Amino acid sequence: MKVLVFGAGQLVQMMYLAAAPLGVDVKAVDVNSRDILHPVSKQKLEMTLDYALSDADVITAEFEHVPEDLLALAGETGKFHPNAKSILTGADRVREKACLDIANIPNAPYKIIKHIDALDDAVQALGQRIIFKASRDGYDGYGQWRMMIPEDVDDIRIAFASLDLQTVPIVAEKMIDFEREISIIGARTSDGKVSCFDIAENLHYQGQLHVSVAPASNISDSLKQKAHYIFETLANSLEYIGVLAVEMFQVGDELLVNEIAPRVHNSGHWTQNGAETCQFEQHIRACLNFPLGSPQTNKITAMINIIGCTSFSRDLISIPGCHLHWYGKEVREKRKMGHINVTANSYFELSEKLSKLLTFLPEEYFPKLAGEIRRLK
Ligand code: ATP
Ligand code: MG
Ligand code: MG
C-alpha cells in the first residue's frame, strides 16, 4: 500500500518509519517545489506529482498549511484524509473559532479584526491582556503579538498597519490564566469509531512546545470525560478520518480549546515509546482503513524537544528508557531538531531520569526541565 503525504518535515519522516513494518510505503510532497521526496533522505524521487497522486492508495498531510490548489487536487481523487474541511479548519483560525462555536465547545473569548479600526473595540471587549494571532500560516508562536500592558497596543497598531487584514484577519483572544495546557490526541475511523491516547500535559515557552508529559498527572475523571467529549464532538463534526490533536487550556475544572491540529502532533510524540501503538502508525492505520491499534499507555513518558541546537551528547541514550529521535535538519534558531522520549514506571522515576538527562543537555534546558522535575517528584 502507498501513502502520499503533503509536507516534507519530521512528521512525514516519522510516519514513514512507523508505516514500514506494516508494509506501507510513504512518500513526501514538498508543497513549494511540488517535488516528490523520500521522507527520510529527502532525496527527490523521479516521479511527477500527478503520477504520485494517482499511484497512492491514500493521500494525507503532515501539516495544515497545504496550498488550496493541492487540497483541491487531492480532494478530486477521493483518497484524501482527514478531508479538506478539517485541513482548512485547522489552517484558518477564523474557521476554527466558528467550528468550535457551532459545536458549542468552550474556547477563549475572541474578536476578529479585519480592519485596523476594529482594534480599539477588540481591546475594549477583551480586556488588558490579549494575544493577537494571524488567522493563517502561524505555528510555534509565529504570527502572534501579545498585549500584556495597555501601552503595548501602540506597538500592535504599528505592526498591524503593514498587514493586509482584509485578506488575513487577526483573531484577538483574551489571555487566559490557565493552570496548565493539555492536549488530547486520538484517531477516528471511516465508520466513526474514536480511540484516544492518554491526555498529555504540555509546557510551552514563547509560544513553542518544549516538554510534554503523558499521561498528564492529577487529572480528574471529570476533566478526562470533558476532554474525550470535546475530542469526539469535534472529530464527528469534521467527519474526521485519521489522527487529530486538540490543544486545551485547563482552568479549574473547565477546559477551553486553544486550537486543533488536523494531523499527528508534537505533543503525541511520546506515544512512540510510551504507548502500545504510536500516533504515526495509528494515523496510517486509520487512513488506510486498517483496524486501529491499542492506544494503551505502557510507560509514563516525557517528551523533550531539542530546539535550535545540536550541542548535546548522544550518550544521553545510556539512560535507561531514554530514546533519541533525530530529524536530520540543518540547525536554525527556534527550529525543532529532534526530540527525546524518556519512559518510566512512575512520576518519581521519571523525575530522576530527567535530572540525569539534564547533565547531558546544554544549560538552557535547566530552567525548562527543573520545574517539571520538582513537580513530578
Ligand atoms: P502550534 O505550534 O501549537 O501550532 P501556534 O503558533 O498555532 O502553535 P497557539 O497554539 O495558538 O500557536 O499558541 C501558542 C501558545 O501560546 C499556546 O500553547 C499557549 O501557551 C499560548 N497561548 C495561545 N493562546 C493563548 C491564550 N488565549 N491565553 C493564554 N495563552 C495563550
Ligand atoms: Mg497552531
Ligand atoms: Mg498550538
TrEMBL record:
Annotated GO MF terms: 5-(carboxyamino)imidazole ribonucleotide synthase activity; ATP binding; metal ion binding; phosphoribosylaminoimidazole carboxylase activity
Record bears the keyword Ligase: yes
Keyword tags: ATP-binding, Ligase, Nucleotide-binding, Purine biosynthesis
Substrates-to-products reaction catalysed: 5-amino-1-(5-phospho-beta-D-ribosyl)imidazole + hydrogencarbonate + ATP = 5-carboxyamino-1-(5-phospho-D-ribosyl)imidazole + ADP + phosphate + 2 H(+)
Top-tier EC class: ligase
Known EC number: 6.3.4.18
Pathway given in the UniProt record: Purine metabolism; IMP biosynthesis via de novo pathway; 5-amino-1-(5-phospho-D-ribosyl)imidazole-4-carboxylate from 5-amino-1-(5-phospho-D-ribosyl)imidazole (N5-CAIR route): step 1/2
A GO cellular component entry from the record: cytosol
Family (UniProt): Belongs to the PurK/PurT family.
Subunit text: Homodimer.
Purpose: Catalyzes the ATP-dependent conversion of 5-aminoimidazole ribonucleotide (AIR) and HCO(3)(-) to N5-carboxyaminoimidazole ribonucleotide (N5-CAIR).
Protein name: N5-carboxyaminoimidazole ribonucleotide synthase
Organism field: Agaribacter marinus
